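task queued by scheduler; priority normal; single chain, no ligands, no partner chains; default sampling; output format set to C-alpha cells
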Amino acid sequence: MKKLVFLFIFLSSNAYVDNLNLLCKGTIGWVIEQDFGEMTMTLNLNLAEKTGDILLPPQLVPYMVRDKGNKFLFEDLKITDDEITGSFVLTKTGVIKSISNITLSRITGQINYTNRYRQKGFQGNCTKIEVDKKKF
C-alpha cells in the first residue's frame, strides 16, 4: 500500500512542469529610430516558487552595469493562467532603482519589456525551450 501511495504521489507531481524556459525573439524599440535587427532574450522561470531570471540582449543593458553581465533575477513575479508579469532591478545608483518590467501572454506567447527610466523596450514572441530534448 505504501508503494502504491508513493507511486501515485511521484507520478502525479509534475515537477518538470514547474520549470519554464523560454526563448523570446523580437525587436528593440527606441525613441530614436535605430535598427538593431532581431534580438533574443531568454527567461528561466520556476512557476511553483514564483522565481526566475532573465537574460537580456546586450543592447538593453546599460554601460554602467555591463561588467556584471546581462542576467537579472526577478524580484516580483506574478503568474496567472493567462499572463506572467515580473519586475527586476536593471541598475541601482544610491537610492534610485531602475526597474524593468515584463508582461508575457501565456496564450499568445507575446512578451513586452519596458523600463521606466530608459527609452529602450523589447517586443517579441516566446517559444518554450524543451530542455530535456537535446538539439545535438
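post-processing summary
- The two ends are 42 Å apart (CA to CA).
- The beta strands are 19-29, 38-46, 51-55, 71-73, 76-79, 83-93, 96-105, 110-115, 121-128.
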